[in-house]
Amino acid sequence: MNLRHGLNRILAVTLAASGTVAAQQSVSSLHGIFAGSTDIGKTQKGSTVYEPASGSYRVTGGGADMWDSADAFHFSWVQLSGDATLTADVHFPSVGVPPLEKAVLIFRQILDPASPYADVAIHRDGHITLQYRVVSGGKTEDVTSAEHGSTRLRIERNGNRFTAFTGSSDGKLTAFSTSTVHLDDPVYVGIGVCSHNAEGLTTVTFSNVSLDQPSRSPVPNKE
User: Fold this and answer.
1) What is the CATH number of the domain that holds 120?
2) Are 66 and 108 in contact (CB under 8 A)?
3) Nearest-angstrom CA–CA distance, 59 and 122
4) How far apart (Å, rounded) are the C-alpha atoms in residues 75 and 166?
5) The pTM is what?
6) Cα separation, 126 vs 148, whole angstroms
7) Neighbouring residues of 108: CB distance < 8 A, sequence distance ≥ 6
8) Count of structural domains, the chain
C-alpha cells in the first residue's frame, strides 16, 4: 500500500483524536506524507517546507552531528507500526562547506536525542552509510556503501532488521547493508538534515518520496 496518496486525511483524523503533540513540534499544517517537523537535540531552529506541486520537501536542519551517543538535526516524521519502506531522491544545495553535512532516511524509537535508530545517510561529499544506535545513549555504528554519490536512497524495516539501499546509474536500487535494532511499535519514520555545524543550517531537497507499508496504518503520536 503506497501511503503518499490519501495519508493526509488519515493523519488529520488520528492526530485530532489524540489531542497531543510532541515537545518542540512545529505543525501548522500537514507536511505531505509526514505529520510533524521537529528539532532534535542542540540545534539552530530548522524547518520543513512541502511543495505540493512537485511533491518535494525542502528540509533545513542544523546540529553538530548525528553520531556517538546523541543526535542533533531537523526531523520530519510520521508514527507507524509494522514493516515499512521509505525511499527518496536527495539533493544538496550547490554551495556548501562542511563535507559531512547529512541527509537521512530514518526509523527512530522516540524524539529524544539519544534514541535508538537506524538510517541511511548521505553526506555532502557523496559517501553513504547505514547508521544505527542499538540502545538509548549507546554508541552509533555505521557501514559505508561502495556506491558513492548516488542520489536515490531507501531504508526498509522488516521486524527489527533494517536494510539500506542505494541507487545505481541504471536506476536500480541495491541493498548494501543490514543491521538489527530493536524498536517497539510505534516508531517514528521520516527524513532529516544535519548541518554538521552547531551554529549553522543547511537545506536539502527530498523528492520522489514514497512511504510504503504492507498492511498497517499510521498511529497517533503518543509522546
Assistant:
1) 2.60.120.200
2) no
3) 14
4) 21
5) 0.84
6) 5
7) 75, 77, 115, 116, 117, 119, 183, 187, 188, 189
8) 1
Residue 207 forms part of a structural domain? yes
**Cα–Cα distance list, 22 to 96, 101, 141, 208 (Å):** 31, 26, 27, 27
Bridge partners of 39?
A: 74
Distance CA 141, CA 6 (A): 36
Q: CB neighbours (10 Å) of residue 213? A: 18
Query: Which grid coordinates belong to 168?
Result: 545505481
pLDDT at 85: 98
Q: Which domain holds residue 23?
A: 7-212
Residue 97 forms part of a structural domain = yes
Residue 155 lies in a domain: yes
Q: What is the pLDDT of residues 62-120, one digit of tens each?
A: 999 999 999 999 999 999 999 999 999 999 988 767 889 999 999 999 999 999 999 99
Domain assignment present for residue 219? The answer is: no
Please provide residue 183's backbone torsions phi and psi, each rounded to the nearest 5 degrees. -125, 130
122-168 residue pLDDT tens: 999 999 999 999 999 999 999 999 999 899 999 999 999 999 999 97
